[in-house]
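The freezer alarm interrupted the setup, so I double-checked each line after restarting. Inputs confirmed:
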Amino acid sequence: MSDKKKKLVTVIAVITLAVLLIVVAMILRNKNKLENPVKNTTIGMGTIVEQTFFSTDKAAAKKAVTDTTDIINKLDVSRLSWREKGSDVWNINSEHSAYVDTSTFQCIEQCFDVSSKCNGVFDITVGKLSTLWNIGTEDARIPSDEEIDEALPTINYKRIVLLPDDKGSYLIETGEDQMLDLGAVGKGLACDRIRLYLETTDIKGAIVSVGGSVLAYGKNPVYKDGTWNIGIRDPFMNDGRIMGILNCEPCCVSTSGDYEKVLEADGKKYHHILDPRTGYPAVSNVTSVTVIAQSGTITDALSTACFILGYSDASLELLKEYDAEAIFIDKEGRVYLTPGVEGKLTITSGAFTIIKDES
Amino acid sequence: MNLKFLKKSDVFLIAALLIICAALLLPKYFSKSDAALTAVVMVDGEVKDRIVLSEVTSAYEYTVPCTSPVKLYVASDGVSFIYSECPDKVCIHTGKLTRAGDTAACVPNKVLVVLEGTKDSGAPDVITY
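Predicted 3D structure, all chains:
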């Protein structure tokens, strides 16, 4: 080979290498773009909404912020709010028979199903009772025993009639004295609706919190394994600190705790999770329950039911019905995990210990 | 140096290509610089103020520009709601916001305070409560 030829080969090799380097550099840049999410925090459904969307298409991620905010607001105003005139729930409560949107119907159906599997410990016909207490609103107060005795017989999910017809309209009927309150599952339902929306977009990964009910969607591009890290609120600290971090695959996560929405009166604290059997805030052996499953409506409903049932066989059996996992925290900081979350929770506060089941 | 097969111009070419590569990659590293902890005050979705906490020399009370009186306490190490005429006082119970990502809201008055900045490594993506 002549010198000239050798030189040519060298130059070609160098240029090829350089082009390769540029391509790699550009790929790295694009990868970096995916890791930089579009984030937004806003108020919706009467609570804080936090949105994080990962996409190489920044415009799509920004659109997802607006679209999901709209989904949450529409769900609140047109479907679930019992205060909002003309919403599905308002219509049911005023007429006791109303045609509703598919999303409302499916949600009521899911709630009915959970109620039937926990003997009505979770029951969306608690409306009369929850408006008596009104915890978390300006009219919060302790009702009289007479008032509670009057409200209790109105609570019975079995009296809800679900009538889907084949023409795509959905009729819900309740007892004349009954009042629906979907407050316990609204945030979880919002997570479910957001997931349905995201499945129609190019968003690769997303994490959304609607007032503490969380949707972890797709892959987290920040970590190689694509998993998500969800902090669990420290139930003993009222400053938003966390007690641990749950590592998880795409799922929904909801927490019910006695530290949230508290009414303080006569030197006593009343939390907002009412036991439909007694009419009073649930007396539980736990202070917080976090539930992990695929549907947010289900995790919302189950966290409420499991809080009322406490760390018990009844709770564990209920969770199994839905392939759900849970983290129970008792008043002494003992943490109980279902098998599916063992090894997934990292405790970050000295006040908590994971208790291993002996059996 | 005896570059048998390379002329000066070739060396320049290689150098130029390497510089292009570097230029493409550099922003990735520069963009990682720490963002200062900033309290973003929003009313009804609109950003009203951005307070860089490290620039706060002495703590002060801050009146949120909204129709109902809402006050924050702004210090170099964090921000908290200290006054609101809303009934549930969820905003005040939230306590002091100290870490990037911490958020507090007075929902009745549509006031939202978010601490922006670089999250600690190991901080969760979101918190369930």
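Quick read of the result. Chain A touches chain B through 57 residues (CB under 8 Å).
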